[in-house]
Amino acid sequence: MAIIQLEGVTKNYGTGVGQVRALRGVDLVIDKGEFAAICGPSGSGKSTLLNLVSGLDRATSGRVLVDDVETTKLSDAALSHLRLQKIGFVFQAYNLIPVLDALENVEYVMMLQGRDLKERRARARHVLSLVGLSGMEARFPAELSGGQQQRVAIARAIAAEPRLVLADEPTANLDAKTAASLIDLMAELNETKGITFVFSTHDPAVMRRARRCIAMTDGLVDEAGSRSGDFVAAAN
Predict the structure, then answer these.
(1) According to the 3-state scheme, what is the secondary structure of the chain?
(2) Which of 67, 96, 189, 204 could be stapled to 235 by a disulfide with Cβ–Cβ 3.0 to 4.6 Å?
(3) Can you give the residue ranges of the ABC transporter domain (predicted)?
(4) For range 20-40, the mean pLDDT
């Protein structure tokens, strides 16, 4: 059963001669429980696609459905509610709240969901330990390295156990060992909790771990370059 459906989706930025066609009629289905990578070079449309799925941006034309809800028809308030309840997002730039410490950043989504303080605090501590940040709960983003901030961002995305996690280049700022451990963690959550993970990446290590690689070229899904199963050959 599909959790993501794109039907004839286009996205244009700007107007006239300066217009950029970021997506040019994308058709795509991603089923619940997938562990998929959106693969392609910079400028191929990977981040734009994730932004449209998450509702952070709106398509110029076409239909986007998430968990059978057509997001292209939702109000801004309804989109925010959908993201809050069903989607975790890991940004390239972390997007941590600078005045909150690591524990509070991870708690934030659960606080917005109205979860009990004791419950969300315990959950935040547990997830921070999973990403290797035990003992750093009281550190603010400015006191953390780039890799540590990325781990807080990933912890925040998975803390509420959403149905779908979208990750924009999740290993871009991490060393190989840390990146591998985080992919291990997300793969385990995918298998044990059934959370659907969709990454954008040009990292061969992430591509190899994905169970499906959706290749993008010039704003289109490249069916010839997409693969299912083992991507070792495709990633090298």
Answers:
(1) CEEEEEEEEEEEECCHHHCEEEEEEEEEEEECCCEEEEECCCCCCHHHHHHHHHCCCCCCEEEEEECCEEHHHCCHHHHHHHHHHHEEEECCCCCCCCCCCHHHHHHHHHHHCCCCHHHHHHHHHHHHHHCCCCCCCCCCHHHCCHHHHHHHHHHHHHHCCCCEEEEECCCCCCCHHHHHHHHHHHHHHHHHHCCEEEEEECCHHHHHHCCEEEEEECCEECCCCCEECCCHHHHC
(2) 204
(3) 4-236
(4) 94
Distance between CA atoms of residues 180 and 94, nearest Å:
18
Give, in degrees to the nearest 5, the angle at Cα 37 between 36 and 40: 155
Count of domains in the chain? 1
Q: Give domain status of residue 35, yes or no.
A: yes
* In the predicted structure, residue 130 carries a pLDDT above the cut 90: no
What would the pLDDT profile of 36-68 be if each residue is shown by its tens digit? 999 988 889 999 999 999 999 999 999 999 999
Token match 């308030």: residue?
A: 77
Task: Name the phi and psi angles at 164, rounded to 5.
Answer: -140, 130
CA dist 193 and 213 (Å) reads 21
Residue 115 is assigned to a structural domain of this protein:
no
Instruction: Give phi and psi for 50, each to the nearest 5.
Output: -65, -40
